[in-house]
Amino acid sequence: MTISWKDVEAAQPAHAAIVRERFDAHKHHVLGTLRADGSPRLTVLEADFSRGELWLGMMPNSRKALDLRRDPRFTLHANPGDGSEMEGGGGDVRISGRAIEVTDEAELARFAAAAPEGAVPDVFHLFRADVTEVVRVYLSIPDICTDVWRPGGRLRTLRRGNGDEPPREDPPREG
């Protein structure tokens, strides 16, 4: 089963809204892919949230596109900005999943037509995200908190302090 961004919004609207706000705050983000030898590759990417999907567009034959064709697993980390957003400002967010390449000419044309004039090159790779995890890390003094959502599960909040005690999990909560 493929999980689109609209599925994330339906399952966890508040979590999805915070994550989307962090991505919308900056144009460029960091995409993690896997090289042929299994080592990580980090590159800059402009992510596009439109028509209920998370889209990843790339130049033809870019290393990141070739990585995703070979192994579709990715992590997209939102630009953290100047770092002042960790407490009360949304925190640090990332989306992981599998990239599904779009090869249908009509779908590529619809994507290009919806973009601002000149924003999409004539030839490009386009991938639709199949979301497998959405994570937010933020400060809630005295703890660092990690909200984790995976398809079919509930939103989990793990809290960790500055000591050597193990992380604690908050009781389950809605949306």
From TrEMBL:
Molecular function terms, GO-annotated: coenzyme F420 binding; oxidoreductase activity, acting on the CH-CH group of donors
This protein's GO CC annotations: cytosol
Key words, A-Z: Oxidoreductase
Compositionally skewed regions (Basic and acidic residues) per UniProt: 161-175
Gene3D superfamilies (alphabetical): Electron Transport, Fmn-binding Protein, Chain A
Domain spans labelled Pyridoxamine 5'-phosphate oxidase N-terminal: 19-134
Region Disordered: start-end pairs: 155-175
Stated name of the protein: Pyridoxamine 5'-phosphate oxidase
Upper classification of the organism: Bacteria, Bacillati, Actinomycetota, Actinomycetes, Kitasatosporales
